What does this fold into?
Amino acid sequence: MDKLNFIALDFETANHYRKSVCSIGMVKVENGKIVDEFYSLVKPTPFNFVPLFTRIHGLSEVDCLNAPDFKNIWSSISSWFNNQKILGHNVSFEKSVLEHLSLEYQINFNVMEFICSLNISRKLLPELENHKLPKVYNYLFNKKMKHHNALDDARAAAEIMISFQSGHYIEIKNNPIINGSSNSLTQNLIPTYQLLIEKKSISEISEIRGLSKDTIIKHILKIVDSNGIDCIRHIRPDDSNIMKVHVAVTELENNTLLKPIYQYLNEQVSYDEIKICLLFLEEIQ
It folds into this structure.
């Protein structure tokens, strides 16, 4: 693909319901250039702001009380979704939000394809310690961005994708770099990977393989590092625990050592759960 055409999309939500959009940011890219942008606050459904979410994006009831709900915004943005490719940094979140909004408001979003800049970044920039949006953006452009502002996040994802394409890192479609496989795994990891693909739990894999849960979790860390996170989505912790770990890491000045996090959370989240939550922190929205 010589030129990129897509819509970079980012949602912020008020609570654990994926339909509870409280802001939306979109950036339109045509022929590899940004040509239009859209941003709006949204009155979420249900109208309930969880403090953990507010701490992340800074939005509260006061900000969105008089904002239009998504149904009233739709008429202004429906043309943006006309058979488009949607890009997101962890696009599975945006896809899930669209699915829930579609059910809530009976909207057909007519999306052609979803592209994930997070997954692509993991493959193209293995030297980074993590692939959160600010980290990748700073690495590529040597400047900071305002994270968890929906428009800034969408714009950053768009610029990252444009940079990848202009640098000839990838062809977006049909490129094996985007798709994980077991080819890059060592022999002792392949059985664990295959059981994850079969959606077995950590306990089930431990029993089948005759290995401790701690060993299986170590396998998982290596598998995710090599193949990406999609193969472990079925063991994804609850959003509430991921959010708690995210807040703990933030308050501890990005310290990801297990014991300080465990103590910060008053020993209410297990060490094993923290390990898995840490894998999903890049996907915090």
